[in-house]
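In response to a reviewer's request, we include the raw inputs and outputs for one of the modeled complexes. The two entities were modeled together in a single run.
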Amino acid sequence: MSMQKPSLTVLASLAAGLAAVAVAMIFFVAPEDADQGLSQKIFYVHVPIALTAYACFGLAAWKAFRLLTTRGERYDLESYTGVHQGTIFGALTLVTGSIWAKASWGVWWTWSSNQLVLFLVLFLFYCAYFMLRYSIEPGPRRERISAVYALFGVALVPVSFLAIRLASDFIHPTVFTRDGPQMTGEMFTAFCVSWAAITLLAYVMYRVELAGKRTDANLRELREVLAP
Amino acid sequence: MSASEKYVAAAYGVFLVFVLCWVVIIAAKLSRLERETGELVRVARARVAAGEPTDG
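The model returned the following structure tokens for the whole complex.
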């Protein structure tokens, strides 16, 4: 028995509802940070966006792995859409992080933070994915090379995530440690709701984008069939 | 508006603008797909009317 995917309307409504709850919790329930003040509120949008970018790259790698093991053509488009979504969320991570850096440290960017530089490397690596993909003629060869690239790229995700802990980065704050989240219960709840909302929103976007790309491909095929 | 408030508004605003841009892009794509589907339907109907096979 195959499991039916939940409808996009339900998921989109749920994402919108969660986003509304998240905004209410962030600004009316979660207390202001004693050290950073109001600018700490950026944390509730910046970190979930970064985690969503990682999740998109992970999904793209899983689909790439499925493509390489099963030769299923549909996984190529799914992996590509995952990388596309991840790159967009990666760009948003850099922008919101930059704004937070300016508010907290007084600079838009600092090269001395390993976390920042490694995330930039990860982002540029996935930007290069598109150059590689579009430099090869469509077909099984492009599908395989793109899949291998997406699979290699995911190795950078844990490196980027753990960099701050491994390299004792004193600039970028470490909120999640071995002792648990370094914040109050209200803050953590607001963060979790925000994370759920952004992840769900990203999944809805992924499904819509995938449906659009599949329709595009089907139309192209139909045009070829109907060509005089 | 304090400096902190401006930065917080900017961070959340960036995300909101991104979502709005995405909606605009998807709307444009949907319009294009609708137009192309309409054209293909017209071609297929013309073929059927002319008694031609529609498998190329």
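As requested, we also summarize the result in words. Chain B has a mean pLDDT of 87. The CA atoms of residues 27 and 39 of chain B lie 19 Å apart.
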